[in-house]
Amino acid sequence: MTRLKDFIQLWRIYRHCNGPIKAARLAWAVARD
To answer: What is the pTM of this model?
Structure first.
């Protein structure tokens, strides 16, 4: 499932700036589209 891979990659990037919880929300919103 490529969407999951996209989510993980995005989450790792966002996590540095936003922290794990907010990063997960952002990554999920982007990967879902």
So the answer is: 0.71
